[in-house]
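Why do we care about 3D structure at all? Because function follows from shape, and shape follows, mostly, from sequence. That is the central idea of this module. The next example makes it concrete: a single protein chain, its amino acid sequence, and then its structure expressed as tokens.
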Amino acid sequence: MSAAAEAHEHHGPPPIHYSSRINPAVLGIFLFIGSEIMLFGSFFTAYFFDRIVARPAQWPPLDAAGVPFERPWFLALINTLILVTSSFTIHWATVACKRGNRAGLQAGMVLTFLLGLTFLLTQVIEYHRIGFNTHDTAFAATFFGLTGLHGCHVFIGLLILLAMTIRAFRGHFSPESHHGLEVGGIYWHFVDVMWIVVYVTVYVL
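And the structure:
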């Protein structure tokens, strides 16, 4: 068939031309993460404004009874180790998928989901036992603002992980087709890194 005949037979829009070697889905998640960093940046700005500009006599400040707010740093440290471990398990799942190891992919996804769920449930328990609430002081409000914002991202990440795990057991991922797994993994790594920043800022410094 001649070129003119092929052009006449073609229907619909022309094929998409990609000017970058990066997959559009991967590029999209990086742009989305950039916007999320700006969102977290606004919460960190409020936190440091309360700590540095307001200049309380001590940090954490005193509550209504004159007792310093106590941050459960040890429990948060355990939660940090849980979340960091989940970053390794999802990396294991991604590598296993690229090597055609379906059992490794499934095991890595299940472990990542369970670790993320454990992190979120532990944070809920921490909220119930922490002893102060958002209306107590500006410190309490920014504490719950930062940790709560991250908790919302963990919850969204768990929904993504659940969908990815179901797809992994249905055989949707392969060494040739794994962009959905890769995109979800990038988001989960972002959640992990952001928690380390939150932990050091809120619980340690």
